[in-house]
Amino acid sequence: MGLKLHNISKVLIIIYFGNLLLYSFSSIFSFDYFEKIFWFIRIPILVVLYYTTSMKKQTLYFLALILYQLASILFATSNPAFFTWASISSLCFKVCLCFLVVDLVTKKIKIAVAVAMIPFFVLFLYVIDFVVLSLGDTYIIWILNTLLTSFIVGIAVIYYINNSDKKGYWLLISAILFVIQIAAFFVNKFYVKNEAIYQIVILSYGVSHFTFYKFLVIKEYERIPYHNN
Known about the structure:
The protein is mostly helical. It folds into 2 domains: 1-53; 105-228, no CATH class. 86% of the residues lie in helices and 0% in strands. The chain is globular. The relative contact order is 0.11. The mean pLDDT is 90. Keywords: Membrane, Transmembrane, Transmembrane helix. The chain crosses the membrane at residues 12-31, 37-53, 60-76, 82-104, 111-133, 139-161, 168-191, 197-216. This is YhhN-like protein.
């Protein structure tokens, strides 16, 4: 990465986390107009950051971010029909992430990954059980969503145990925060409306997306021959 590009990426990272903090503060102090603005531009900023710094500019990751943005917009409405489509969009987002990490699974660790994902999936099922009536027809969609999330976490845990490299470190942080984000989202939306829990949603989502971006960019650079030499 050239010096100019490096400086641009640093500015974009500052903008990303600055926006995240402003979104958080706007929510705390009920500045609804500004909160909507900072909420909406969070993913577009990440899209620009990835486009600027990525060597491959993978269409699948762009699609994942678009699906997440769409899900967020639909979740923000109170229309039950929109919630169904938001759930589907969120599931498709997780499918995209799975395709982006599945190549880390080798024959040597595939059984370990399957075992590692079990406790996280059980935890998700426990959380879903609290809000099962509120989920309605989307119950199966969220079972699949949490299964895929558990798969990502299983990969992250086992890969980091076996390699402990930078991309594994960023993926592990991202995966753990995705777990926290989903659990906090369910509790805040269906169980207890609480600003503190919503702040957990905001911060866990923001950092989890950034750490996944870091994982992906490092992974791309590692596969460039001249970069490794």
